[in-house]
TrEMBL record, chains A, B:
Belongs to the uroporphyrinogen decarboxylase family. It comes from Agrococcus jejuensis. Homodimer. It is an enzyme of class 4 (lyase). Its main location: cytoplasm. Pathway: Porphyrin-containing compound metabolism; protoporphyrin-IX biosynthesis; coproporphyrinogen-III from 5-aminolevulinate: step 4/4. It catalyses: uroporphyrinogen III + 4 H(+) = coproporphyrinogen III + 4 CO2. The keyword Lipid metabolism does not apply. This is Uroporphyrinogen decarboxylase. GO terms for molecular function: uroporphyrinogen decarboxylase activity. It is found in: Cytoplasm. GO terms for biological process: protoporphyrinogen IX biosynthetic process. PROSITE patterns: UROD_1 (PS00906), UROD_2 (PS00907). Keywords: Cytoplasm, Decarboxylase, Lyase, Porphyrin biosynthesis.
Length: 365, 365
């Protein structure tokens, strides 16, 4: 029944891609590779495009968000696109007073620091997002159309969203903080209000990633930037249920080939948490501090690993980088499959030619 | 030969204290307890005393530093004093342009970002500290004299210093940063310069804690605030040797009772590093994210554990706090001995009456 599009004789579907095969547990002949924050400040073509446009405005401009998402695919030959956006976008669209301050990060106009403030926030029905997310859907549609024109047309787009804990940590502290103590204190002092807050965040961020999948994303990744501030017992009791609820918004969806849409979960500093992060996902991203084989042993399940070259190595001599890549590939062989990545986002100061060379090295390994 | 001081009929020596006995591996009948940052902003009497005086100036005023150090002993009845100072003090005294900015933290006038900058820095002989540290010695002498007047006179003073990696991370980044990427990149890109930098930091911070011991401190703790940003291999290769070198400045010293001075090592976020942190110390402090029994199993040696109540719990209802204390005590029983503490410093917003209640609960357990 499937008819190949006429415009590209080599067209394959994203289901044939190394990335989707690896997420589903195959070991493709070549290890797939992409980089967290590959679309962003390390690329001169990105800096040029973003000049004069606010971060959150860029995310909601479909022409910009799609072009920025495609830039690293053309330049580096990575095996996946990750939709250019910001984890704060769904909060903004739900009516939260949030802006991204240069050199600071997300700043919330009125931090949510009491059970009463939580009640006022969650009075907003997350369904308000369904219409507001249209610029995100349109950005994804344009990206997917653009990807079909690159190479054999099989490069998949990963949709993404911030995890509820990370969103809640920003909402409570009002700005980035070192160890998210304000959020963790609200969690311990007012567990019922905390659950209402993170459930609301789960539905807001879940609708955000669902919109990306509806518009054509081939996989979905939940990012928990701040999970690493939590001990395991607090994570299991006060955070994992909301993360699972966020994933429920894209769980069990069928991809374009009729098979289940692959889901990925990543937490920065999740050293003690890997055993609790599976939550039914296909792949778990590993931070740079835990060797992939060690992290995989903690996961205890049949799951693909993603990661985890230390971004601090990107400034090292090439021989040092190459040896570290080979070690990451060796450690990644402990899992059923491995998607190569950094252990955290690409630093803005990174020389992009190093990233291209890493892709070539992983593909040639 | 020992003559008890005349002024206090109940006088005991610090070697008899619960803290020193626990550090040395005994299990006293009552678990000793103190709090990291117990001297500081959680106490109204501290805020009153500090009004109008800069942080680093306070550290170098013997009357202030000793009084601030004694305040939590009088108020909470904790089993140890920890000398009130700042890990930046020895850098300041070695001539580094450093100040503590309110709401920011340490700021370095000229960050050390190249091998050439490292060479210029390390041209300063750490021996310049020997004279400059006199206000620290005098603060310690006054503190020790004050402690002899409290209770049975046996409360020991813990001397402290920042670990070389933490000092180097500030020197390279110039200010607090989220994951110390600038320092970790210098480490990977220029390992020889990095080793020269951290060796210099080791000798500077080592002389700082040695001065405290010479003036009467009964134990010494090395704090590595940023170790948790490192994977184990980088820690072992590029950080642990300098930490060991810092500890060498106080290793093998005899305490007032003729036995070796107890040494303690603490690293924030050290989840993956416990197996490499022993470095010949008597006790290892554990961060709030790793249960004491889990951390102790990773240490793999005959060592006392210290910690590790989650500071986020300090705002919770008392029943929640009490249950968490009991669980920490249970987990601490896995080691040869346990010194109760928080898993990180006392947050400034803490209600100090909660800390007093925790001391009473631990002592009654």
């Amino acid at each position: 029944m499937t008819t190949l599009p006429q415009h590209h004789p080599l067209h394959s579907t994203t289901a044939d891609s190394r990335l989707i095969r690896a997420y589903r547990g195959d070991r493709p002949e070549v290890t797939p590779v992409w980089f967290m924050r590959q679309a962003g400040r390390s690329l001169p073509e990105y800096r040029e495009l973003r000049t004069g446009t606010d971060m959150l405005d860029s995310c909601l401009d479909p022409a910009l968000s799609s072009e920025i998402t495609l830039q690293p695919i053309r330049r580096h030959g990575v095996d996946a696109a990750i939709f250019f956006s910001d984890i704060m976008v769904p909060l903004l669209l739900a009516g939260v007073d949030v802006r991204i301050e240069s050199g600071v990060g997300p700043v919330i106009g009125t931090p949510i620091q009491t059970p009463e403030a939580v009640e006022r926030l969650v009075a907003t029905d997350p369904a308000v997002l369904d219409e507001a997310l249209e610029p995100v859907r349109e950005g994804v549609r344009r990206t997917v159309a653009g990807l079909a024109e690159i190479g054999d047309g099989s490069t998949p787009l990963i949709g993404f969203a911030g995890a509820p804990f990370t969103l809640a940590a920003y909402l409570v502290a009002g700005r980035p903080s070192k160890d998210h103590l304000a959020a963790r204190t609200l969690m311990r002092a007012h567990p019922v209000a905390w659950a209402r807050l993170t459930d609301w965040c789960a539905d807001v961020t879940g609708r955000f990633v669902r919109a990306q999948v509806d518009a054509g994303a081939s996989a979905a990744q939940l990012f928990d930037s701040w999970a690493g501030s939590l001990p395991l017992d607090a994570y299991v009791q006060h955070v994992a249920p909301a993360s699972s609820r966020a994933l429920d918004h894209v769980r069990g969806l069928t991809a374009s080939d009729g098979r289940p849409l692959p889901l990925v979960h990543f937490g920065v500093g999740a050293m003690e948490l890997y055993g609790a992060m599976q939550l039914g996902v296909d792949a778990i991203g590993v931070d740079w501090r835990t060797p992939l084989d060690v992290a995989h042993a903690r996961m205890g399940g049949d799951v693909t690993v993603q990661g985890n070259l230390d971004p601090a190595l990107l400034g090292a001599p090439w021989e040092t980088i190459a040896a570290a890549i080979d070690e990451v590939l060796r450690q990644g062989s402990a899992a059923r499959a491995h998607v190569f990545n950094l252990g955290h986002g690409v630093p803005p100061e990174t020389d992009p030619t190093v990233l291209t060379r890493i892709v070539e090295h992983v593909h040639a390994a």
